[in-house]
User: Which sequence fits this backbone?
């Protein structure tokens, strides 16, 4: 069975959102399905843009950050996000359902180590809309963290250190040089860490170099693990008639699994599967599986990816939030015009004989406009110099910006017709 590392990484991300063996599947089906489907939509855009390049992606991370972003936006900007996500974070029951999903992921019944955290960092002196902070806490159960982004290096350290802590040191450089500047006003961040041991580890003695068939037709020698065991297994076909097989590789707690899928024929691109992927299809895979004796040969690999999320999110209809003149963040603050200046995700994963270690961090950075709207007096204009104690105005009118020199007792008046000022 051939497989591509790119899909194994996605499967891990899906398992964290849509663990069918967990209680959240029964109690929070809609929340799990909607967040999964949205994360997969973003993944499909990212995978399409990456072409044949291996990449790893966290659907859960991007769904978490965009859910928080919803609450800060208004008008058409919010409507575009809600349309893409297919839910409103402040509609009745949605936030509690997501919190319950979070509890299921973090519950002590998970023998595999999982941790996920959300954070919102806001410019300390930004005047927030009244009631925003308690409303945000009520929905997400996390407090607004106030930082001073004008202290660029310190602010970047604070955010990176938070991410490093919540990813067990795997991601310590989420924000590189230049990610924070004097115009930064808000950062929404999700961090996720997973350390799962296979229910049946691969014997190290079974790991050997084998040829891996790349999508461009070439081959490369990579270390591949192997084990013969009874696995949950099924076969499906795409709408185009391409058959593929799916195998479930459980972690030792049986709460989480990695679902591995690949087309039968090596010349069929992986996009034949990723283009049709959604939460319902994953559920269908699981529902049709039976125990089968199989020899599983799986690449041993580690991957690290950094993804710019702007184009994938724009392709899903979320365009206004990236436009300084159209973004609406009035639910956060009406003090100044804000827009999303960056949206990014970093993920690291290692799959070996004993299991999987993975971590991701997703961030959306909201900034003030890079420059105020220009008012250029490049045409005849009128001005009035007012004596404030008496309210008496002087006379004004000019075709150029140079005033005529006058005595201190006389209101300044214009009368210069040339762009350069004459000598007194």
Assistant:
């Amino acid at each position: 069975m051939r497989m591509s590392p790119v899909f194994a990484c996605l499967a891990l991300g899906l398992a964290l959102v849509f663990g069918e063996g967990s209680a959240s599947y029964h109690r929070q089906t809609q929340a799990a399905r909607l967040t999964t489907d949205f994360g997969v939509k973003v993944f499909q855009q990212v995978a399409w843009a990456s072409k044949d390049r291996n990449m790893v992606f966290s659907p859960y991370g991007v769904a978490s950050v965009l859910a928080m972003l919803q609450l800060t936006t208004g008008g058409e900007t919010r409507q575009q996000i809600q349309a893409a996500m297919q839910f409103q974070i402040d509609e009745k029951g949605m936030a509690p359902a997501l919190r319950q999903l979070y509890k299921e992921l973090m519950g002590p019944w998970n023998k595999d180590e999982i941790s996920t955290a959300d954070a919102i960092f806001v410019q300390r002196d930004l005047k927030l809309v009244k009631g925003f902070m308690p409303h945000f806490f009520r929905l997400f159960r996390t407090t607004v963290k106030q930082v001073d982004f004008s202290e660029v290096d310190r602010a970047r350290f604070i955010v990176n250190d938070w991410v490093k802590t919540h990813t067990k040191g795997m991601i310590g450089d989420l924000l590189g040089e230049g990610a924070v500047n004097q115009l930064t006003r808000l950062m929404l961040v999700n961090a996720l860490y997973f350390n799962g041991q296979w229910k049946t580890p691969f014997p190290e003695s079974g790991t050997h170099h084998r040829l891996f068939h790349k999508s461009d037709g070439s081959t490369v020698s990579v270390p591949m693990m192997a084990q013969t065991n009874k696995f949950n297994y099924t076969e499906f076909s795409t709408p185009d008639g391409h058959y593929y097989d799916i195998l479930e590789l459980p972690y030792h707690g049986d709460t989480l699994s990695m679902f591995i899928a690949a087309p039968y024929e090596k010349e069929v691109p992986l996009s034949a599967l990723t283009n049709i992927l959604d939460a319902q299809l994953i559920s269908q895979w699981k529902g049709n599986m039976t125990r089968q004796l199989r020899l599983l040969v799986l690449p041993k690999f580690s991957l690290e990816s950094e993804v710019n999320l702007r184009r994938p999110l724009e392709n899903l209809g979320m365009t206004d939030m990236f436009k300084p003149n159209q973004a609406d963040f009035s639910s956060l603050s009406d003090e100044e015009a804000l827009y999303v200046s960056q949206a990014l995700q970093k993920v690291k994963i290692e799959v070996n004989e004993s299991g999987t270690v993975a971590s991701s961090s997703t961030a959306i950075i909201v900034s003030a406009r890079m420059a105020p709207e220009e008012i250029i007096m490049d045409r005849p204009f009128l001005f009035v110099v007012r004596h404030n104690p008496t309210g008496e105005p002087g006379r004004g009118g000019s075709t150029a910006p140079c005033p005529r020199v006058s005595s201190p007792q006389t209101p300044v008046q214009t009368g210069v017709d040339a762009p350069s000022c004459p000598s007194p």
Notes: The longest strand covers residues 219-237. The first helix runs from residue 5 to 17.
